[in-house]
Design brief:
The structure is a single chain. This protein is mostly helical and 81 residues long. It is 89% helix and 0% strand. It has 3 helices and no strands. It has helices at residues 2-31, 34-56, 62-80.
C-alpha cells in the first residue's frame, strides 16, 4: 500500500508542476508580438511532429497520446490568439 500512496503523491506533484508550467506558457504567449507568434507556431508544429513520431514508436499508453494531442491543440490555439 505504501508504494501506491507514494505513486499517487508523485502523480499529484507532477500535475501541480504541469499546471504551473501551463500557466507560465500561457502568460509568455500572451506577451509575444504577433510576428513572433507566427514563427513560434511553425517551430511548435515541427517539434510536435517529431514528438508525435517518437511517441508512436514507443510503448506509451493511449491516454498519454490523447493528452498530448489535446494539449497541442490548446497550445496552438493560444499561440494563434
Amino acid at each position: 500500500m505504501k508504494n501506491l500512496q507514494e505513486a499517487t503523491e508523485k502523480i499529484c506533484e507532477l500535475k501541480g508542476s504541469l499546471v504551473a508550467l501551463d500557466a507560465l506558457m500561457a502568460a509568455l504567449l500572451h506577451e509575444l508580438p504577433q510576428a513572433q507568434r507566427a514563427g513560434l507556431r511553425r517551430r511548435f508544429e515541427s517539434h510536435t511532429e517529431v514528438a508525435r513520431t517518437v511517441m508512436l514508436h514507443a510503448t506509451i499508453s493511449e491516454h498519454t497520446l490523447q493528452a498530448f494531442e489535446l494539449d497541442v491543440a490548446r497550445m496552438s490555439a493560444l499561440i494563434g490568439s
